[in-house]
């Protein structure tokens, strides 16, 4: 059964990624685009974890963790830049 | 792998993907930035949480031993999602992004004013 | 309050050890020792930058509170999903101002995180004197009732669980 459910879930997550991309391209303001990028990161992370289950391999965990960390740091850095105009606080 | 465990994993996977999709739909179709902020911070976080729980169950059964390190991802996401949402909404308030016409209540121009 | 100079944050040390064990994903004596060492050394090196965490007074209540928050997160997600998929006319967005009793930095951050994660609200700002929190709610038909519910549901238990003076 997993052999059918995992591709289905990948399809759903792929659709979510497409919607995020559309918001990233359309987004009328900069915070909109940053929010879309942040969501894109998190959905990509979910897709990687799913791919790890599909291959029954543990090695994707580190990649997912790194994506989570970089996504958060990137979002906070851009948010600070929007608030103060510089990154060093 | 027993059938009912496979069923459980499938249920968590489907639930997680559906929540992630709901978050993306909300990000796409809600009318202004502040309402759009709600969908990804809540739905997407829980969606990824569901997929990660499925992953924990799968690897624990497959490797005959507890495999909990995916929980770190959930922990990290649950701590960071509100922080980045707060950051972005502060930035949006400062830039004076338009809110929906129906929005009630007073909004601040900048920190505390 | 007794705080030893060589172990400034016992709770954080324990948490770091747990995180290290999770990260390596195996429970052996060597990793336990390494985790304990890291949990001891990292707070010691960073002690100038860490904020003060108030002591937990009622650990059992804390566990129950965390379970309740987790359940609320699931319920809030179902609510938000229904709002997102429903027609746009049903949305009732509003900005709320919540007066805060809590003064402690750590508890304030915790409360803001919980509020952002749970019931259709996102924290959007804080006055410089830390007395008022600005929230944006996705669906708030009754602003006053929502503010009262937030204060009763999350702020009061936090004050009760942690050791701090409310004024």
Automatic annotation (TrEMBL), chain A:
* GO CC annotations, alphabetized: plasma membrane
- What is one Pfam family matched by this protein? MrpF_PhaF
TM regions (residue ranges): 5-22, 34-57, 63-83
What are the alphabetically sorted keywords of the record?
Answer: Antiport, Cell membrane, Ion transport, Membrane, Transmembrane, Transmembrane helix, Transport
Name one molecular function that GO assigns to this entry: sodium:proton antiporter activity
Q: Which domain of life is it from?
A: Bacteria
Cellular compartments annotated: Cell membrane
Q: What is the membrane topology here? A: Multi-pass membrane protein
Family of this protein? Belongs to the CPA3 antiporters (TC 2.A.63) subunit F family.
Q: What is this protein called?
A: Cation:proton antiporter
UniProt organism field: Pseudomonas flexibilis
TrEMBL record, chain B:
* Cited Pfam families: PhaG_MnhG_YufB
The UniProt keywords, alphabetically, are:
Membrane, Transmembrane, Transmembrane helix
Gene Ontology molecular-function annotations: sodium:proton antiporter activity
Q: Kindly list the residue ranges recorded as spanning the membrane.
A: 40-59, 71-88
- InterPro entries from the UniProt entry: PhaG_MnhG_YufB
Entry-linked NCBIfam families: CPA3_mnhG_phaG, PRK12674.1-2, PRK12674.1-5
Identify this protein by name: Monovalent cation/H+ antiporter subunit G
Automatic annotation (TrEMBL), chain C:
Record's keyword terms, sorted: Cell membrane, Membrane, Transmembrane, Transmembrane helix
The protein's matches in InterPro entries, at most eight in alphabetical order, are given as: Cation_antiport_E (IPR002758)
Q: What is its main location?
A: membrane
Coiled-coil stretches noted in the UniProt entry, renumbered to this chain: none
Molecular function as annotated in GO: monoatomic cation transmembrane transporter activity
| GO terms under cellular component | plasma membrane
Instruction: Please verify whether the record's keywords include Transcription.
Output: no
How this chain sits in the membrane, per its record, is: Multi-pass membrane protein
Question: Where is this protein localized, as stated in its record?
Answer: Cell membrane
Q: Mark the transmembrane ranges.
A: 7-23, 29-50, 62-86, 106-126
Q: Pfam families in the record, alphabetically? A: MNHE
Has the keyword Membrane been applied to this entry?
A: yes
Family according to the record = Belongs to the CPA3 antiporters (TC 2.A.63) subunit E family.
Mind telling me what this protein is named?
A: Multisubunit potassium/proton antiporter, PhaE subunit
Write down the species.
Pseudomonas flexibilis
